[in-house]
Fold this protein.
Amino acid sequence: MATVNAQPAVPSSVWRARLRLASRSVRENWGLFVRTRIGLLGLAIIAMYALLAVAHPVLMSTVWEPRIYDPVIGYAFDETKQPAPPSLKHPLGTDPLGRDILSQLMFSARSEFLLGLLAATVTVVIGTSVGAIAAYFGGWVDTILMRLADIMIMMPAISVLIVLSALIGVEHFELALLIGILSGFGATGVVLKSQALSVVVKPYIDAARSAGGGHFHIILVHIVPNLLPLSFLYMMFTVTSAIFSEAVLSFLGLLNVRMSWGLMIHTTESAGYLLQVAEFWWLIFPASLSITLLCSAFYLVGRSLDEVVNPRLRSR
Amino acid sequence: MAKYLLKRSAQILVTLFVFLSLVFFIVNAQPGDVSNFYALNPDVPPETRERLQDLFGVNEPLWKQYLVHLKNTFTGNFGISFSHYPRSVADVIGERLPRTVVLFMTATALSFYLGFGLGKVVAWRRGGWFEYTSTVSGVTLYTVFTPWFGLMMIWLFAFKAGWFPIGKFLDPVLWRDAPIDANSVFTQMIITAFAVSFVVLTVFVITAQKRMSNARIIRIVSMVLATLAVVAVWMSWGTVSYAWDILRHMVLPVATLTLISFAGTMLLTRNSMLETMREDFVMAARAKGLPESAVRDKHVARNALLPVVTSFIFSLAFAVDGGVITESIFSWPGMGQTLVSATLTEDLPLAVGAFVFVGIFVLVAHLVADILYAYLDPRIRY
């Protein structure tokens, strides 16, 4: 995988060559990615939900009247009975409190994306730094970071999240940070470190060092870019686990959020419609399917990135 | 090896210490103190409250409270549960831990069996529609929103079809005038399961090592004999109907857990198989003219087994933690459900007790997994 290293004062022809190399490697990897097919399916689902998330504010400011369609405080005055079945005005019906389900679904999609992105970014920033630093310095720095990783891996994650959110009061932002820290200092950090170990022994690291490069420079310019493909892969898996944890916690009513897919099912449960699956399907299926689909989509993208990044998995 | 074990145990102890400190921190971040919760319960007399205050050391300085917390943990003295008053936390946990462990041992074993079998085939038919559909459906099940999936299982097979009970551990109507309590029946079931699997495993290992030609017949006969023996023993105990009731309650949670977790094994097996398939000995086996199924099962799959076994052992370690959701959906009275309901009802002693116990269980299981791993993989030498 070609990497673009930012260095000042390089002749423009070198830049052109680098660009050409980069675009070629992108094209090759895209080909590998497409060949797995599952990645494209994942991308399509993600794109669909991204579209929903973007469309919500637009619809709210044009077609949908906030008084009726607000996902949290709206009320469907046009329906006589709540929860109302799907109709033209409310394509997915309304919930037991008279709020439009489609509006809730689209509104939540945005916060799920933000949560996933934040958790994944935190994970990858921490994981990449931990991996690169542990592999580059070795010795006691490595020992401390890896023992910390052991502690993080051994934490019963779901139980920790449940207890923390029940007793301290957690919102999306804190949840993303928690997941990011647990996974970044834990499993992701370990995996990225093992990758970094194979980078540290490469001759160009020695070359950079003998050319007078400082620790910070070598880590940032020579090691981290080589970890990025793998980090990107782990971003996908973190997004899945972040969305899933959020859904579970808010389904249990433990998260302090205004609206989310898990909370929609929590509302259904507390209103007593949970076992009337056939009669009130629109209370259960849209939110649950969205959680499932978006989680699988990110996981599928991660899987097919794995085939791209991991040469041992390529077919001969 | 001894040195490695010592080092690993020391690390586990440090982890445990960090974990317990985290618990202490969370509990202390609460407004008021633990004994205030008891004040709301009219069943708790003032003397008991004072005794509890002494137990948790709430009137002492903070560092002393911390020491008391550590001492209570190591003596298993977590106080008395609010929601199960007057039972002690240790008592409640002692009843629920085996239920969780049995549920998850079964489900994990099943899902690994299923996942390994499917993973073999998926790797072999790489690129075909079979791989595509099984990967997509496997991943969908793997990342499915577990509460919803459990709910659909309950709705389909228990609510609509009525084949299985809707949830919980047993049917109270049946057990009302039972001559024996549920925990002893459950203990009998665990002992039976262990005895049977031990006998069957021994027969398998012996027949495999002696390379007997009639190994298959011996295995089948031994399994039939073991089943007959179990039936006879249970008939003589006269508790078959009660055991059957518990088993019926186990079916749906076990099926759910198996379905949501087999894909992990399947994908792992697939990757491991794909790596092994590139080795030269596979080509040699093919060149000998062995049938494809023999190459797949005897040459590739056996060598691809190691990472799968490793992940099996590690997933047993996380069984108690991972089942939190499934248990609470199926109201299976195990550790996970206890933890969730205790946190939701603010039963602080029970929540802390369950949390600490889950943590300790995971840590110990991790240590065991490490030892087994070192034993299984000859390349690892400490």
Summary: The mean pLDDT of chain A is 86. The CA atoms of residues 6 and 50 of chain A lie 32 Å apart.
